[in-house]
TrEMBL record:
GO annotation, biological process: CENP-A containing chromatin assembly; DNA replication-dependent chromatin assembly
Name this polypeptide is given: Uncharacterized protein
Annotated signal sequence range: none
GO MF terms, alphabetically ordered: histone binding
Alphabetical list of InterPro entries matching this protein: NASP-like, TPR-like_helical_dom_sf
Keywords: Repeat, TPR repeat
Annotated Gene Ontology cellular component terms: nucleoplasm
Coiled coil segments of this chain: none
Length: 132
């Protein structure tokens, strides 16, 4: 999944405007996939990139310089203000995902340390040269 998402991200970055929500979504999905693959630091970077794209979009919307979002083009109820509000609700959710990813990283490292310690203790107990 990570390779596919990286490929998708490269393509989207080549053809879409830099403030495209599709690019932000791909960064987010990549972050989730990287987290599942225990690549926590890369996951956080991808999630932060998603926030960066969305923040850029908000700035462009406020300055009325945003790129046209094809999915919103025919939406008669679309307004810049609505999109800004929508994005401003998404950003804290992504920040929460970053915090969750960091927590999961800590939990995983703790579990690995515990397993390693158990292994060392068992190995020591089984050592034939160990004095009893």
């Amino acid at each position: 999944a990570v390779e596919d998402l990286n490929s998708c991200l490269r393509r989207r970055e080549e053809i879409l405007p830099s403030d495209s929500r599709s690019i932000a979504e791909t960064h987010y999905q990549l972050g989730v996939a990287l987290g599942f693959n225990l690549r926590f630091d890369d996951a956080v970077k991808a999630l932060e990139s998603s926030i960066g794209v969305l923040s850029s979009r908000v700035t462009n919307l406020k300055d009325k310089k945003e790129s046209v979002d094809p999915s919103k083009k025919d939406d008669t109820f679309y307004t810049r203000e609505k999109e800004i509000e929508e994005i401003e609700k998404l950003i804290p959710e992504i920040k929460e995902k970053i915090a969750d990813t960091r927590d999961l990283q800590e939990e995983t490292l703790k579990k690995i340390r515990e397993m390693h310690l158990e292994w060392l203790l068992k190995r020591r107990q089984m050592d034939p040269l160990r004095k009893k």
